[in-house]
Amino acid sequence: MTNKYLITGPVTREVLNDLMGSFGEDLSAGGHSLFIGQVRADSTGGRRVSAIEYSAYENMVNKEADKIIEGIYSSFNDVRSVKIIHSTGVVRAGEISLFVLVSAGHRRQAIEACETIVEQIKERLPVWKQEIFEDSTREWKSNNFA
């Protein structure tokens, strides 16, 4: 990993296994919510996306992600732990570019906190996406909050 929250390339199965390694160690956590973001092979203007290249302002990613997590702990008193990993570099269609795991005492807070984190990542993290199409053309993409 390049820093606390960013990884170069896709979030691979090996990385997922490492991240999930501590799963279940906190015996006070009864609910876990997981979000895995995958690059879609969207079609735009007759061109199909083959990959996305992510770039990030790494120092600010760390600061903003820390603030997001602090806010989650303040807003959701039952949350026990949060893990966030976002890709940088090229991630092909079908590969994972975002991993969020929230553990809480109960499922409702885990689910709601996970959704809140994903929305805040889209809004606040200085991560940019450039779509790479099958014809090798590229286009910057703005975040879609849907």
Search tags:
elongated, eight-stranded mixed sheet, 30% helix, 146 residues, 3 helices
Describe this structure in words.
With 146 residues, this protein is of the alpha+beta class. The chain has helices spanning 13-20, 58-75, 107-124; strands spanning 6-8, 31-38, 43-44, 47-56, 79-92, 96-104, 127-133, 138-141. Strand 5 and strand 6 form a beta hairpin. Helix 2 packs antiparallel against helix 3 (107-124).
Helix-strand layout with pairing:
Blueprint: E1 6-8, H1 13-20, E2 31-38, E3 43-44, E4 47-56, H2 58-75, E5 79-92, E6 96-104, H3 107-124, E7 127-133, E8 138-141
Parallel strand pairs: 1-5
Antiparallel strand pairs: 2-6, 3-4, 4-5, 4-7, 5-6, 7-8
Helix pairs in contact: 2-3
Decide which structural class fits the backbone: alpha+beta
At the fourth level of CATH, the homologous superfamily is Molybdopterin biosynthesis MoaE subunit
Please mark out the parts with pLDDT under 50 across 5 or more consecutive residues, or reply none: none
At CATH level 3, the topology is Aldehyde Oxidoreductase, domain 3
Count of individual beta strands: 8
Q: What is the gyration radius calculated from CA atoms?
A: 16 Å
Number of helices: 3
Distance between the termini: 28 Å
Main sheet makeup: 8 strands, mixed
Order of helices and strands: EHEEEHEEHEE
Share in helix = 25-40%
